[in-house]
Amino acid sequence: MMYEMPKRKILLNPGPVTTTDSVKKSLMVSDICHREKEFCSVIQNIRENLKKVVHAGESYTTVLFSGSGTAGVEATISSVIPHNKKIAVINNGSYGERIVEIGKTYNIETINITSPFNEPISLEKISSIIENDPDIYAVAMVHHETSTGLLNPLSEVSHLVKKLNRILIVDAISSFAGVPIDLEKNPITYLVGSPNKCLQGLPGAAFVICDKMQLALHQKNRRSFYLDLYAQNEFLEKEGMLRFTPPVQIFYALQQALIEYFQEGEMQRYERYKRNFQILVNGLEQLGFNFLIPKECWSNLLILVSYPLSKKKIEFNRLHDELYEKGFTIYPSKFNMDNAFRLACMGHLTSNDIEFFLSLLKKTLFE
Ligand SMILES: *Cc1c(COP(=O)(O)O)cnc(C)c1O
Asked: Which of 92, 194, 250 to mutate to test the pocket of ligand 1 (most atoms within 8 A of CB)?
């Protein structure tokens, strides 16, 4: 079969990311029905390997959904909260806000624990709100707040929530496989991820790694038919397949992305991302950019920057278009700051890619 690889592009937006040629090639499989045993074994293999990424043992099960990452968050929020109970959301950015919106959509009473986007969260505040409201059944948080590049303290929150005897739902979509997560050491009830961020797979699926005992208790709490976490898990366990037609090829790509993740290694991937991030921020600093999140909260995956003062007149769209033409994608800020944008170091990128980007940015801004 003749097939030419498309031109490699450098995506500095926070997902989907630059993937390897081998991940892209894995889309080219023979047509196959998703109910065939051959495909079921791909699904089972993916479910097991996703657990391994976060060191989840026998007490966990992986539930897969078609859809983008948000489908996984929505499936969890809509499936597990008892009908007369509340959810508390730790909200310090757009993705925290999205969880609040999902709760409201399903008429779940939602306690919105907000804090400024550029400050570490206060564990004392969170603790006292939860302690004083026995109707709070679950706590939800975003691990890496992708709207700002701020990393929330997953380990501390997980132990706090456990101590307070509540369940914890974590949106780890943009940290999964990019920042080490250990479910043996951190008590997390539901952990949501997607293939198309630090796993370096392709978009179209979401997954939820669930504490099996808790999931069994939540059987009667579903509010959605399609996004029913319990029913999807039952079907995966008993029939070995998803309830409804999945994006078959995307799962082949995820299988390949997982192989490449384990080939690279957990710490090696983390170190590569961190190294690229360091090169990026050093270069940006030299160009006079300002960083909007305090250093002690950095995820080492993404940075929110504002333009050097002297260059404020350059419009984001013009900068974006000029860089895009040269094969580089940058991403606007979620906030209404017209001189800010975001750069992520997720995906199959090398230090050369980042250095080349910095030289292009310099040229575009200053020449
Ligand atoms: C990307 C992302 C999502 C999901 O976004 P989709 O567009 O639905 O894939 C959710 N939460 C976080 C923190 C993310 O970075």
From this structure: 194
